[in-house]
Design a protein that fits this description.
With 547 residues, this protein is an alpha+beta fold. The chain has 3 domains: 153 residues, 3-Layer(aba) Sandwich (Rossmann fold); 65 residues, no CATH class; 199 residues, Calycin beta-barrel core domain (Lipocalin, Beta Barrel). 30% of the residues lie in helices and 20% in strands. The strands form 4 sheets. It has an 8-stranded antiparallel barrel with strand order 10-11-12-14-15-16-17-18, surrounded by 4 helices. A hairpin with a 7-residue loop joins strand 16 and strand 17. Helix 7 packs across helix 8 and helix 7 packs antiparallel against helix 10. It is globular and about 75 Å long. The N terminus is likely disordered.
Length: 547
């Protein structure tokens, strides 16, 4: 299904070739790598497999201010000066993110950087050369004079290129994406020469090994073209050449201490994994993935998951925490839950009924229409099953989804989460043991119309021993179809509460979903307040097929 048209941008003010956009002052939060509610812990397995039971190849994104003791100054320390970033984008250029204007994408990135650290200040300009505005031009030059990073996106106009070359000589870090090959890249004050002018980023000549690692990481992340990775690119540059970003420390292997822990505590699990064809293939596959390429990581796990692989990760990660990590659930952005449903104040029972959704009238509660994360919403045929268990007060969530393995087979996967009510009505705590690692998540019912024709659920989670925290949202409906145009304004408003733009959503393929392994345990209960008959009548009104 095609995406809805993005809302129009405010007309920017122009100045001597560059128009200034607004500065954001949103609250900080913990940065999250792409992660999803049904995902397995691919990155930690990658880290252990990358060791190859030795320390010759360690995943490490360098931070120039690391101390010998391993202590790292946090990026949100009050005494730290701000990190000043200027983004210059080609006027009217469109991004690969559902053709959203690059200006809008970078403005949104500026806002999301503030979730990481209030001290990250990025101002966005466009290279509009149609007008001359001395005041704005002075503002731009002033920002460039004190900028730590200049990010150039989609600038190919030669007059703009000449202006940038004349006014950016003092900036130590310049990164250019999808722009004129005449523009230069700099990292830490050193030029990074491009060997292949056709590449969207840069080459790798005459630079240190640490800079090569940064170049590779940023290049690969940018080419994935999603909002998480665009922000990640900037954070990697900050971490390597300005000051450490504490949330990136979990991407670094601990070397011999990790290896010692693994061998001492999990020798039999390691041996069993190496002797098992599927487990061995999983580790080999993960070893070829970038630690931040979640598409690659998850496909490896989904293709080769097995009891042996689960035992390996359960021992190395969950039981002994050989990576020494301790991620926590992000507190921001704070997303308020819906407060009313069908004209009455929302209560815990009705909130649970909203999750249960269409189960009873249909064989599932909801089907996922789209989600924020392309790494996981690329997988087709996603079903959600919410139900009350046999035990008093118990509530469960089981996502069912399809994966195309590396051998080209289509397989079904299913997970099981325990769900508990949060203190605030409409919020819930989820927990799951997924391939040997526990993930804890905080879910919020952001909105759902009275006819339950769609719903938007936000989540923030963490896999503590994997060192990863993450946030996201899923848009659901009874038939997997996008809400109609009449609902668009309400949907966009709900997305705004989550800090998500509509062009960030990745549509799930729900076309060929034969024989999903659905069903819930015998003796389970469904709705408490909402009646199934009401659901059936509403289903006829909105065109949901009878089952």
């Amino acid at each position: 299904m095609s995406s809805l048209e993005a809302p129009p941008l405010l007309k920017p003010q122009t100045c001597f070739g560059f128009s200034q956009a607004r500065r954001f002052t949103t609250s900080a939060t913990v940065f999250s790598l792409p992660f999803r509610h049904f995902r397995t812990l691919a990155s930690p397995l990658l880290t252990t497999s990358a060791l190859k039971l030795q320390t010759s190849r360690l995943t490490h994104i360098p931070a120039i201010l690391d101390s010998d003791s391993g202590a790292m100054a946090t990026s949100d320390h009050l005494s730290e000066p701000p990190v000043r970033i200027v983004a210059l984008v080609g006027h009217g250029t469109l991004s690969p993110l559902k053709s959203a204007p690059w200006q809008e994408v970078m403005l949104h990135t500026a806002k999301r950087l503030k979730w990481v650290d209030e001290g990250y200040e990025m101002i966005v300009f466009t290279d509009d050369l149609t007008q001359l505005d001395t005041e704005n031009c002075v503002n731009l030059k002033r920002e460039l004079s004190c900028a730590d990073i200049l990010v150039i996106v989609g600038v190919k106009n030669q007059e703009s290129v000449n202006w940038i070359q004349s006014n950016s000589g003092n900036i130590r870090n310049i990164i250019c994406f999808e722009s004129s090959p005449n523009l230069v890249n700099k990292l830490g004050g050193s030029y990074v020469e491009s060997q292949n002018k056709g590449r969207p980023f840069w080459g790798q000549t005459k630079i240190s090994n640490e800079t090569v690692e940064v170049v590779k990481t940023v290049s690969e992340a940018w080419e994935r073209h999603n909002s998480d990775d665009i922000r990640f690119c900037i954070l990697v540059i900050i971490n390597a050449f300005i000051r450490p970003v504490s949330i990136l420390k979990n991407l670094r292997s601990k070397g011999f201490s990790t290896l010692s822990c693994m061998v001492k505590n999990c020798g039999s699990q390691i041996l069993n994994c190496l002797l098992d064809p599927d487990c061995r293939k999983a580790l080999q596959c993960l070893n070829n993935c970038s630690p931040v390429d979640q598409v690659c990581n998850y496909r490896c796990i989904a293709s080769y998951e097995s009891p042996t692989l689960e035992a390996f990760s359960l021992c190395v990660l969950q039981k002994h925490n050989c990576l020494g990590l301790d991620a926590k659930i992000s507190e921001r952005p704070y997303v308020p839950p819906m407060s009313k449903f069908r004209g009455e104040e929302l209560c815990h029972e009705v909130a649970e009924d909203v999750f249960v959704g269409w189960l009873g009238g249909l064989d599932w509660s909801w089907r996922v229409v789209a989600g924020q994360n392309p790494a996981y919403d690329q997988f087709p045929c996603q079903y959600q099953l919410f139900y009350r268990g046999k035990a008093k007060g118990s509530f469960w969530y089981e996502p069912v989804f399809q994966v195309k393995t590396l051998e080209g087979k289509m397989v079904w996967r299913r997970r099981k989460y325990r769900v508990k009510r949060g203190k605030v009505v409409g919020t819930f705590y989820f927990s799951v043991l997924d391939n040997g690692v526990v993930s804890n998540e905080f879910w919020t019912i952001v909105d759902a119309p009275d006819d339950l024709s769609w719903g938007l659920f936000h989540y923030s989670g963490a896999a503590r021993v994997a060192g990863q925290s993450y946030t996201g949202a899923v848009l659901v409906s009874p038939d997997g179809a996008y809400p109609n145009e009449m609902e668009r304004k309400r949907l966009v408003s709900a997305l705004e509460k989550c800090g998500i733009e509509e062009w960030e959503l990745y549509t799930v393929d729900n076309c060929s979903c034969a024989d999903p392994p659905l069903g819930i345990p015998e003796g389970s209960n469904l709705h408490s307040v909402i009646q199934v008959k009401e659901m059936a009548q509403l289903g006829v009104q909105i065109g949901v097929p009878n089952v």
